[in-house]
Design brief:
Blueprint lengths: L1 H19 L4 E8 L2 E6 L12 E9 L1 E6 L6 E6 L7 E9 L5 E5 L5 E4 L10 E8 L2 E6 L9 E8 L1 E5 L5 E6 L8 E9 L13 E5 L25 H10 L8 H26 L1
Antiparallel strand pairs: 1-2, 2-13, 3-11, 3-14, 4-5, 5-10, 6-7, 6-11, 8-9, 9-10, 12-13, 14-15
Length: 280
C-alpha cells in the first residue's frame, strides 16, 4: 500500500509539472467553410515549411432516438437530428448498454451497409451498420439486446487536407470537407510539433468552436478574404463529457457520479488511442 501511495504521488506530481509548462490554444476561427485558423499561445512557433500533425475535426450529430427492432432482437435503429453527408466518415460510440463501437464511411450514396472489419468472434460486437437514408441508421449486433434503453454518440469526421503556418503561432487547417453554417465542432489534437520538431504539450487536447450564420464559401482566388466567424474557444473538460454522455446533468448519487467519470475517461481514451493508431 505504501508503494502504491508513492507511485500515485509521483504520477500526480509529474502531471502537475508537465501541465504547468504546457502551451495552450488561445483562439479558433473559421475563416471560410474549408479553412480553420488556430492561434496558439505566443511561446509556440510553427514551421513555415512543414507542420507535423495528427488532428481531427469532428461534428457532433445528435441521435434523436434509438429503438430496438421489435422482430430482430439483435437490431437497433437510430434516428438522427441532421442529415448525414456523402463522402464522409463517422464514428459511432456506444454510451449505455449496447457494447462496441464502429467507424464507417458514406461514399456516393446513402443506402448501403458496412461490415465490421474487426469481427473476430468476440462475445459482443457490432456485426454491421446499414444506412437506411440520410437520417436513419440500423445497427446489427452478434448478440440479443435485452433492454430497451440505449444511448449512442455519433461523430462526423471532416477530412483534413493539410496544415500550414507562416512561421508564427498561427496555424491554418485546410479541409477537404465543408463546414456548415451555425454549427458546433470539436478539434481533437493527438499530436502537434513546433518549428524545432518537438512535440507540443498542450493543456487540453479537445477544443470547441462554432461557425456563424454568415459563413462564407472558400474563395478560389489567390487572395481570399479572411472572415472571422467564431470567437470563443472552450477547454476540453466539458467537451469530453459531452462526447461520453450527451446529458445536461450529472447523477446525484456518488456511485453513479464515479461511474459517469469512469465511462467518460474510457470513451475519450478509446477514441484518442484509436485515432493515433489509425494515423500511425
Amino acid at each position: 500500500m505504501t508503494q502504491f501511495k508513492v507511485l500515485f504521488t509521483i504520477l500526480i506530481s509529474s502531471l502537475f509539472i508537465s501541465s504547468a509548462y504546457s502551451a495552450s490554444i488561445e483562439n479558433i476561427q473559421a475563416l471560410d467553410n474549408q479553412t480553420i485558423k488556430i492561434a496558439a499561445s505566443s511561446d509556440v512557433i510553427f514551421s513555415d515549411v512543414k507542420v507535423y500533425w495528427e488532428v481531427s475535426v469532428l461534428k457532433d450529430i445528435q441521435v434523436v432516438s434509438s429503438t430496438k427492432d421489435s422482430v430482430n432482437p439483435k437490431k437497433m435503429r437510430l434516428t438522427l437530428a441532421n442529415d448525414l453527408t456523402l463522402n464522409s466518415s463517422y464514428n459511432l460510440i456506444w454510451i449505455m448498454w449496447a457494447e462496441w463501437n464502429i467507424d464507417f464511411t458514406i461514399w456516393d450514396k446513402f443506402i448501403g451497409e458496412t461490415i465490421n472489419p474487426n469481427y473476430y468472434n468476440e462475445e459482443k460486437i457490432i456485426e454491421k451498420i446499414s444506412i437506411v437514408d440520410s437520417k436513419t441508421l440500423e445497427i446489427v449486433y452478434n448478440y440479443d439486446l435485452t433492454t430497451w434503453l440505449y444511448e449512442f454518440k455519433l461523430l462526423g469526421e471532416l477530412s483534413v487536407d493539410s496544415m500550414n503556418s507562416k512561421g508564427d503561432n498561427v496555424l491554418n487547417i485546410e479541409l477537404s470537407s465543408k463546414l456548415d453554417k451555425s454549427s458546433s465542432y470539436k478539434i481533437m489534437i493527438s499530436s502537434l510539433e513546433n518549428i524545432d520538431g518537438k512535440e507540443i504539450n498542450l493543456t487540453s487536447n479537445i477544443y470547441d468552436f462554432t461557425t456563424n450564420s454568415n459563413l462564407v464559401e472558400k474563395s478560389t482566388s489567390s487572395q481570399a478574404v479572411e472572415q472571422v466567424v467564431s470567437q470563443v474557444v472552450t477547454t476540453a473538460e466539458p467537451s469530453v463529457e459531452d462526447i461520453a454522455l450527451n446529458a445536461a446533468e450529472t447523477p446525484d448519487s456518488g456511485a453513479e457520479t464515479w461511474f459517469v467519470m469512469l465511462l467518460t475517461f474510457i470513451v475519450s481514451t478509446f477514441y484518442f488511442t484509436r485515432n493515433r493508431f489509425r494515423k500511425s
